Amino acid sequence: MQFALTEEQNLIRDMVRDFAEKEIAPSARIRDEEEHFDRDLMFGRLGELGLTGIIFPEQYGGGGSDYISYAIAVEELSRVCASTGVTLSAHISLGSNPIYLFGSEDQKQQFLRPMAEGEKLGAFGLTEPSAGSDAGGTRTTAVRDGDSWILNGTKIFITNAGEADTYVVFARTDKEAQKHHGISAFIVEKGAPGFSFGKKEQKMGIRSSPTFELVFENCRIPAENLLGEIGNGFKVAMKTLDGGRIGIASQALGIAQGALDASVAYAKERQQFDLPIARFQGVQFQLADMATQVEAARILIYKAAWRASAGLSYSTESAMAKLFASETAMKVTTQAVQIHGGYGYTREFPVERMMRDAKITEIYEGTSEIQRLVIGTALCR
Ligand code: CAA
Ligand code: FAD
Q1: Cβ atoms of residues 23 and 44 within 8 Å
Q2: How far, in Å, is the centroid of ligand 2 from the Cα of 132?
Q3: What CATH number should be reported for the domain holding residue 60?
Q4: Tens digits of per-residue pLDDT, 248-270?
Q5: Dist. CA 300 → ligand 1 center (Å)
Q6: Sign of the C-alpha dihedral computed for residues 100, 244, 258 and 163 taken in this order
Q7: How confident is the model at residue 109 (pLDDT cuts 50, 70, 90)?
Q8: Final residue of a structural domain among 96, 121, 146
Q9: Domain membership flag for residue 206
Q10: Residues 248 and 86 sit within 8 Å (Cβ to Cβ)
């Protein structure tokens, strides 16, 4: 066992940190205020850096790196802008990875390659108004009609929606089947007839990441856009989410690290009682707890990522990493606001945005309760 990053992983951290600090950070506050998704900056530039296909083999336009490198990239982006972090995470883990894992060779060349190369942005449509945590309650339908599938239904809260070009969407192909059975996965392209976008969500945090409803009204897609085997969609979704949870855990880690860094810097700067507040043990103890939780989250994430790259099972490990990292992000950002005092409650300092951004990591890709359910089920099997 060794804890050091490889030379490649260190190079990726340096490159992404440099890019994030110089190019992403300066506009993070204004994009948050204006709910502005800057596609060129938040996706196009990531493609130029080779990040949009980082975990996929070169034969599909990817970078051929491992999951730890991917986790590092999402962490470094999220350290300055959690919206950019989730854009990459949703694109890679949710939009692209199911096509890599379950797609035919033709689907990989047609859909995955342009996504990995940063030309087309991906998204994932699982959640519905009455099927959130209970993903097996999917009501959207897909009916075969000659050489096409016809989709009807609504997906809600979809990250990257509106901007994304390629959507992996789940629909019921067998109306008689119960619960998670009889669901299939499909690839739907923006512009497909009968596919439109509904309400844009106005959110507490990650406000420069677009979140829209997907509306399917007799939406016609080619028969060959079925992804994986018919009726196997729930497993496609679950395996996809195993990887996605590493991405969101890394987003949470980045937010927490950013809040810790800001707090240490502020505590050294801010004077009260004729001393920098960092000299008070009460403040140092808070910083010590924050740093310890951040490091523990990082190690859980790297372990899950390492198992994913080694081809080992990692469902429980990614649920643990996501659970711990997201709850750490919430605790650490709340403490960061406390250390900044009244200034931390204003938009002058980024910790206010970080605390708002942290909350979503306890909700999406499975709430903290669902992560506990996944871990608990594995323990008591
Ligand atoms: N890998 C492979 N198969 C799996 C699996 C996994 N990780 N987890 C479950 N399965 C299989 C089971 O083995 C079972 O198979 P059989 O039918 O062969 O027995 C089948 O799936 C059903 O399993 P469960 O009975 O455990 O299913 P359930 O209905 O009780 O649901 C759940 C389990 C974990 C709660 C699941 O519904 C879930 O993960 N819910 C949360 C949904 C979620 O995370 N949504 C995120 C949307 S994406 C998002 O939010 C985007 C973003 O962040 C940007
Ligand atoms: P519910 O399932 O209604 O849960 C409500 C509460 O009940 C929660 O506290 C939950 O933990 C608890 N609960 C539910 N069931 C149980 C149980 N069995 N045991 C204990 N507690 C339980 N979805 C996508 O498909 N694609 C996306 O790209 C996407 N992006 C998102 C982006 C944002 C900003 C948001 C807000 C959501 C996004 N989602 C996306 C949806 C997200 O995954 C769901 O919101 C999440 O899974 C929870 O579902 P829900 O909102 O319906 O809550």
Answers
A1: no
A2: 5
A3: 1.10.540.10
A4: 999 999 999 999 999 999 999 99
A5: 21
A6: positive
A7: very high
A8: 121
A9: yes
A10: yes
